[in-house]
Design a protein that fits this description.
This protein is mainly alpha-helical. It has one domain (3-165). The protein has helices at 31-67, 71-94, 98-112, 116-123, 126-138, 154-165; strands spanning 3-7, 10-14. Strand 1 (3-7) and strand 2 (10-14) form a beta hairpin.
Length: 168
Amino acid sequence: MLKTTVINGDTLLVTEIPEVNIYPGYMYKNRWDYWRYQRLVRNVKAAYPYAKMAGAKLYELDQELTKIHNEKKRKELIKETEKKIRSEFEEEVKGLTITQGRILIKLIDRETGNTTYHILQNVKGNFSAIFWQAIARIFGSNLKSEYDPYGEDELIEMIIMLIEAGQI
């Protein structure tokens, strides 16, 4: 069905055309560059849904924690939420590669505005954050990695924009 409007006795059909964003394609210098870009796209596509879910779950947890003033009940809620998340996503996240894990760490920073280390520190405490940072450093990652959409992570940001626009 189309909307109509009457202007000076004339009936005109009115429709809204949705906005379409067109992003320029990535220019490859050579085959190696093309291959690296495709690998990055695959890795971002694997990690991005988990970052979105992590951001949503953390927001929900923060909302619930603000309502609870008893420290014991807060800890119980955190443990219960952690068990739910582990049972739901642990096997899937274990299947990510090391590179996808590094991208996930950066994307969590993008979604939440806090590094993974800072989130762990706030939710689980200093000891747990330090422990997991040490484990991450052993495997060459860093939980304190920040997302930089205008510098180091510009290509990742472009890929995310294309994913959200439905172009890849």
